[in-house]
Amino acid sequence: MNAMSSDPLFPQGGDRIAARKSGAVPRTGLGLVMRLELSESLRSRWFHFYSIVVVGLMLLLITTGISESRVLGFTGLSRLLVTYIQIAMAVLPLFIVVSTARSMVGDREAGNLEYMLSFPVTLRVWYWGRFLARLVLVLSPVLLALGLAAVYGLVRGHSVPWWHFGLYSGLVAALAACFLGIGFLVSSISRSTEVALGASLLIWLTLVALLDLLLLAILIQQHFIPEFVIGIALANPLQAFRTASMILFDPQLILLGPASYVILDHFGVTGYVAWAMAYPTALGLVLAALGYWRFSRTDLV
Amino acid sequence: MITIDRLSKRFDRRAVLDELTLSIDAGDRIALIGSNGAGKTTLFRCLLGHYGHEGRVGFDGSAGQRRDAGALARVAFVPQLPPPLRMPVGELLTFAEKGAGADPALMRDIAGKMGIDLDEVKKRPFYRLSGGQKQKILVTVALGRNADLMIFDEPSANLDPAARAVFIDLLAARTDASMLIASHRLEEVAPLVNRVIEMDRGRVVLDDSVADRLRAGDFRRAEIEISAPHEPFARALEGWGFVTDASGLRFSGPVPAAETFRFLGVLARHGSLIERLSLEEVPQAAPEKVN
Prior knowledge:
- The structure holds 2 protein chains of 2 kinds.
- Chain A is an all-alpha fold.
- Chain A has helices at residues 13-20, 30-43, 45-63, 76-110, 112-116, 123-156, 162-189, 193-209, 213-221, 226-235, 237-249, 259-266, 268-297.
- Chain A starts with 12 loop residues before the first helix and ends with a helix.
- Chain B is of the alpha/beta class.
- Chain B has 2 domains: 2-209, 3-Layer(aba) Sandwich (Rossmann fold), CATH 3.40.50; 219-281, Alpha-Beta Plaits, CATH 3.30.70.
- Helices cover 31% and strands 29% of the residues of chain B.
- Chain B has helices at residues 40-47, 69-72, 89-100, 104-113, 118-121, 131-143, 161-173, 186-189, 210-213, 231-239, 260-269; strands spanning 2-11, 14-24, 29-33, 54-59, 75-78, 149-153, 178-182, 195-200, 203-209, 219-226, 243-244, 250-256, 274-282.
- In chain B, the strands form 3 sheets. A 6-stranded mixed beta sheet of chain B has the order 5-6-7-3-8-9, sandwiched between helices. In chain B, strands 11-12-10-13 form a 4-stranded antiparallel beta sheet, covered by helices on one side.
- In chain B, strand 8 (195-200) and strand 9 (203-209) form a beta hairpin.
- The radius of gyration of chain B is 21 Å and the shape is globular.
- At the A-B interface, helix 1, helix 2 and helix 5 of A face helix 2, strand 5, helix 3, helix 4 and helix 7 of B.
- Chain B: Keywords: ATP-binding, Nucleotide-binding, Transport.
- Chain B: It comes from Pseudothioclava arenosa.
């Protein structure tokens, strides 16, 4: 057919391509997927809002002079960190789980996934590349906020508790990994953004409800065995984070009451902090792996 | 190159692809036609590994695993609807270059031919472009890739007639790749293809290979009668070497067998005029004047 011969308009295109045929097979790597996800998220409104909230909270606490106040003998940066980390516990998981749960299912609904997955990228690279990029993204503003606090402490002449900074960063990273895993699992399972959003909110609310001392009190009142109640508390990543952040400035866990004996007897301070870092991280990775398993076995679009 | 063996895909127990068996060889340029819901897009999604399915899809004798990145490196795809990607155009082109081996110089050439200045649009978010611009960028990315198979799902739906013509020329120039083009405008892609596959309810109902049936050198004799004299139609047929009678209503002439699809494409544009049409094979009759 005449139309199938080389077009005089574009005499070089086919030849140039043909010359490259012998080259290596192109493949989209983890770095490229991460870079794509990072730049995509850096442009998104959820990330801007999240960053403003996370960094803004720290600035707010600094400007209100909370580091100059004294509670239970704590003052300076330790006081600032304790307050910040308690507030972050309320904000961080909600932001992470809601924004993440909508991400992949939203891309699927919009048709972005159909196009982007037509490139030579393995599902493993695509999924875990996005996971790692999101982890970097959600941690960056928190680390920036903690860095701001350290700079503020140095400027004000406070002693900077670097050890606490390190431990708090680790706890936040573990919590972020956990809720990222939940978000990825929800996103992989859900068939619409509405379902993903509803499911992520429900999970967050459930974990917050199980955090409530009142709920635990009711459980005890209903004659559940104490081990069951304490088991629930230990299995709740939010509670693990909360207790570990308390134990760092209150090693006797006076604030926690009698339950502290169980924790201190079974774990000790170091053991519990290690648990609070390792367990949410492992849980997040397992849930994310489940999400990947589901993602790779169902229809992608 | 691609072997599809008893490929089935069901949604809620309804078979969208029903034990479809097909092979695509290197050099095949296929027009995939069929009404809405015939299964064309589902077939593409199975080829790209987007859908799980029954049956087997194998690239060059591979084991036929659902999604093979090595095989995808050889396939370029333009979807029916451009995705609302938020990334700037420049980022998409960089992704195609680094992740799929697209040639930046070639993409620049192709975009230019399609009337897109990449320097002008590279910082604009992809989703903010017009429908036609998006389609042109996707075509640019696909044609800029070192692909052995190009899959186009209604690729020219958003293009204006001028861009459509350039697009067809660009496809025609890519002689090194096989093509699978789903289109409702057979007349448009007819000059490009050497095989037409029609699908209906998830099955292949027609697999017409021009290479086999319409050999170079064979001719068909066409006789056409129209309802009223029509100057543009007469001029179009004159270009094919047709003669007309005194009334200007009856035309007859030769059609090179290998140009049958293109000829039918011309007729399709004037379909409402045609009262009678015959197309008979004349294997040995080489006419004096051909197009």
